[in-house]
Design brief:
About 30% of the residues lie in helices and about 25% in strands. By secondary structure, it is α/β, with parallel strands linked by helices. The protein folds into two domains: about 290 residues, Zn peptidases (Aminopeptidase), CATH 3.40.630.10; about 110 residues, Alpha-Beta Plaits (2-Layer Sandwich). Helix 3 packs across helix 9 and helix 5 runs antiparallel to helix 6. The longest helix has 21 residues. The chain starts with 20 loop residues before the first helix and ends with a helix.
Length: about 425
């Protein structure tokens, strides 16, 4: 039953009823098929073909992105076609990421576990994709009935898990042409299915990758004073650079340099000539993130020079924080309350995870919701990026209702 009376909906806004059982079953089957056939970033050819086929069956005209994976599809623009570029201004876009992860699926008893070795949809992108597809099918039907007040764009984006993310390439390929606002969601295993988490302002962290090579002449461990003690130099970079950065950034920016790899040497009595380090730089504040490359590189050089080591630094720009715009966040809040009531919306914290949805927000206002996927009452929390991750599939219906309502409310405001 609709709960439209709980919010002040725009005049003329009539939300559709519950999803038909046949569509609900179809979407669950579609998600399970994707789950069984995960594909890595920029390799999502099967996934792209499956989405394209279903959209075309609904009478839409999706456009595959130039790289050959991912696609965009407009509903209600240019007579309902989806050429992707000749569009009406102020369109609302819905974005889904379609790639999987290079980890094994550990759900041994699951009938729809991954059939691809060392590949899994362990971050919920199969759910995101199915939600946007389902919303598109509902909105296409409403458009045929003359009930879609404003065109909508569906964006199925590849390579979210590949820094700096496939969003930048999709934008270059016209994904935001004619778009006035954009929405997305991300599975959250800490929130019960039937609810979403919302937050105005920063939602995720910036995330960059750092790779360092240190060089020195090497020598005998009996005479470290005659050469560059490269292992010590690497160790000092690991320990001293994060401490130095803590004094060069406002502590409220939440900048953290964390190492994931250090390699050097092969023998206990030989000072090596080469060392390698790699890690990530994460930052909660977008302005500090803009300053990070110069200050991080300067700190590394300072410590390396102190120990007479030559440094070669590759600072790989990743993604800025996702910063939810208040107006679009309110749109998602109103849409969810209209469908599920006030208790269906909960607050959520800013995380240190990275999300390339942030690149869209550099161009247009938007917001991301956290979609609850935990079965109510379940005590086990299956975290993201783990091989046993799975969802309560009722969350798919919730996501479709959320995005459908958001499109209709947005179109009348």
């Amino acid at each position: 039953m609709s709960l439209e009376s709980e919010i002040d909906l725009p005049q003329g806004a009539v939300l559709p009823g519950a999803l038909p059982d046949a569509l609900r079953a179809e979407l669950i089957a579609f998600r399970r098929d994707l789950h069984m056939h995960p594909e890595l970033g920029n390799q999502e050819f099967r996934t792209t073909a499956a989405i394209k086929e279903r959209l075309e069956k609904a009478g839409l005209k999706p456009r595959v992105l130039g790289a050959g994976t991912g696609l965009v599809c407009d509903i209600g623009a240019d007579g309902g076609a989806g050429e992707g570029r000749r569009t009406t201004p102020a369109m609302l876009a819905m974005r889904a990421d379609i790639d999987g992860l290079p980890i094994p699926d550990m759900k041994t008893e699951c009938p729809y576990r991954s059939t691809v070795p060392d590949r899994a949809h362990a971050c919920g992108h199969d759910v995101h994709t199915t939600v946007v597809l389902g919303a598109g099918l509902v909105l296409a039907d409403l458009h045929r009935q003359g009930r879609l007040p404003r065109p909508v764009r569906l964006i199925f984006q590849p390579a979210e898990e590949v820094l700096p993310g496939g969003a930048a390439d999709a934008i270059k390929d016209g994904a935001l042409d004619g778009v006035g606002a954009i929405i997305a969601l991300h599975c959250d295993p800490r929130v019960d299915a039937g609810r979403i988490g919302l937050r105005e302002g920063p939602l995720t962290s910036a995330c960059d990758r750092l790779e360092i090579a240190l060089e020195g002449p090497g020598g005998h461990t009996a005479r470290p004073h005659l050469t560059t003690d490269l292992v010590t130099a690497a160790a000092r970079v690991v320990t001293d650079v994060p401490a130095l950065l803590a004094r060069r950034f406002d502590s409220r920016s939440g900048l953290a340099l964390t190492w994931g790899r250090i390699e050097s040497g092969h023998a206990p009595n030989v000072i090596p000539q080469h060392a390698e380090l790699s890690g990530t730089v994460r930052c909660l504040d977008i302005e500090a993130w803009r300053q990070a490359p110069d200050l991080v590189v300067a700190a590394i050089d300072e410590i390396a020079n102190l120990h007479r080591a030559k440094s070669e630094i590759n600072y790989v720009r990743g993604v800025p924080p996702v910063v939810n715009e208040p107006g679009v966040t309110e749109l998602l809040r109103d849409a969810m309350i209209a469908r599920r009531g006030t208790e269906s919306v909960v607050g959520t914290e800013q995380s240190l995870g990275g999300e390339d949805f942030s690149w869209y927000l550099e161009h247009v206002p938007g917001a991301m919701a956290r979609l609850g996927v935990r079965t109510p009452g379940e005590r086990i929390v299956r975290d993201l990026h783990q091989g046993d991750f799975d969802v309560d599939e009722s969350a798919i219906t919730v996501g479709v209702e959320l995005f459908t309502a958001a499109a209709l409310i947005h179109g009348l405001r």
